[in-house]
């Protein structure tokens, strides 16, 4: 049996603003000082089914998927919206291996949520040597690129590379 000794890469994509185009609903997202009754995360997410697919990201994902790569979706969207997200992905023909969502009671900032969640999810999955992230937010890309590597207690290392889209 032939064995290839190549680096195994996992590709991780953000959902809202990366795979989906959420420009039409950004005006509903709450911003400090959080006192506008017309804005809420529930109102923002209620419009998610109306998002269009970001064709450039879709094409990248399709090419990677058809080549047999592992694709994960890591989103700050709360778990209570999981079925809606999965329905949208299915209806848009987007293949992926796993979707990882924020717990309903998790109010960490998105960069902290994503870096800590990625570290936890991939701990023990020694089959990956590199994580490549695609996200629309500069602060999330920055935290992944400045972290550079996950160094796990079992000696496994995973390098990180993030791209802003």
Short structural summary:
The protein has 165 residues and is of the alpha/beta class.
Describe the structure in your own words.
Helix 3 links the parallel strand 4 and strand 5. It is built from 5 helices and 8 strands, in the order E-E-H-E-H-E-H-E-H-E-H-E-E. Helix 4 crosses helix 5. The protein is an alpha/beta fold. It has a 6-stranded mixed sheet with strand order 5-4-1-6-8-7, with helices on both faces. It has a two-stranded antiparallel sheet with strand order 2-3. The chain has a single domain, classed as Rossmann fold.
Give the CA-CA distance, first to last residue.
40 Å
Q: Give the uncertain stretches in residue-range form.
A: 1-6
CATH architecture: 3-Layer(aba) Sandwich
What amount of the residues lies in strands? 15-25%
Secondary-structure element sequence? EEHEHEHEHEHEE
List keywords for this structure.
globular; 165 residues; two-stranded antiparallel sheet; 6-stranded mixed sheet; Rossmann fold; disordered N terminus; alpha/beta; single chain
